[in-house]
Every structure is written in C-alpha cells, then in structure tokens.
Amino acid sequence: MRDVAIVGAGPVGAALALALAGAGIDVVALDARARGATLRGDRSLALSHGARLIFERLSVWAPLAATPGAVTPIVRVDVSQAGGFGTAMLDAGDVGLPALGYVVSYLALQAALDAALERAGVDVRYGVSVERVDTDPGVRWCGRRATRPRSRRASPSSPTAPARAWRASSARATTTARSR
C-alpha cells in the first residue's frame, strides 16, 4: 500500500509528489493526461519568488530557466489606477531579490516537472481518470470535500490504488484522507 496517492500531476500535484518522494514517502500520482501531453494549451503563469525557491529545491527551476523563452523575471511592479489617488512602485532590488516573481510558460513548467518526476522515480500513472475516492473504515478525511466525487481506480489492470492518504488537487477543491 502506498503512503500517499495524488490525484493529478499538473503543477501542484507534481510539486507535491516530488516533495513527498524527496522526504522518503512512497507516493503514486494518478493523472488523466497521456504521458507527455497536457490537458491545456500554453498560457502564462505568474509565480512568486517563493515558488522559485520551492522549484529550486525540487530540481525543477534550473531546467525550466534554461528553456528559451520559458521564464521572464518580474523585477518591477507599478501599482496605480488611472485618475486615482497615489501610486506605488515595487522593485526587486529594493528588497534584495533577483526578481519579485516570474512569468512562466505552463507547457515548459509542466515539461520540467514531468522530467523531474521521471528522474526522481515517482510512479505516475497516466491516462487515469479519477471519478470517486472510496475509503475503508478508519480513514479520516481532512480539508474540504471535493465538489465532485472522486475514485481511487488506478488502471484497467489494477482497479484500485490503495493508499494511507489521498490528496486530490484542483483549482476548485482540495480533499485529503488519511488513515489513523
């Protein structure tokens, strides 16, 4: 039985899987997309400097930053409103940072995360659509309930993926279950 099963290996799920695997936790990630594919087209994501530090610890930042056109630093932010009172200028140099944040390509970030998952030997099961999470007696739910039911079905050859903890990540809800 795995310690943790993560539903989704997008940026949040992949980062969580890498962090947990790096801490010696036996993890499996279940992802609806095919290996090497994305469910969305490219778009820009804004990441904080803190997110960069996390990705550096996960060995994702260097390959991402080396990808041409994938990362644009945000070194200055002008906060103002046309016709409004006052303005503010935020500058990375004023706080001793190389950048306040970064605009990154979603596709490049996902590719860097996928490569890091593979390098780390994290078990990612692609093509798995999770519909419902069924728990056994003694499993305790923490966090918010997901807005739609979830399943722990892993693959046609392995109908379930038992784990002591479940983490389902999406933009709309997060659900975690742990055994006692």
Give a written overview of the molecule.
A six-stranded mixed sheet has the order 8-2-1-10-11-9, covered by helices on one side. A three-stranded antiparallel sheet has the order 3-7-4. Residues 140-160 and 165-180 have low confidence and may be disordered. The protein has four helices and eleven strands. With 180 residues, the chain is of the alpha/beta class. Strand 1 (2-7), helix 1 and strand 2 (27-31) form a beta-alpha-beta unit. It has helices spanning 11-22, 49-57, 61-65, 106-120; strands at residues 2-7, 27-31, 44-48, 71-74, 76-80, 87-91, 101-105, 123-126, 139-143, 163-169, 174-179. The longest helix is centred in the middle third of the chain and has 15 residues, at 106-120. The relative contact order is 0.23. The two termini are 14 Å apart. It is elongated and about 60 Å long.
Distance between the termini: 14 Å
Shape summary: elongated
Helix content: 10-25%
Q: How much of the polypeptide forms β-strand, as a percent range? A: 25-35%
What oligomeric state is this? Answer: single chain
Succession of helices and strands? EHEEHHEEEEHEEEE
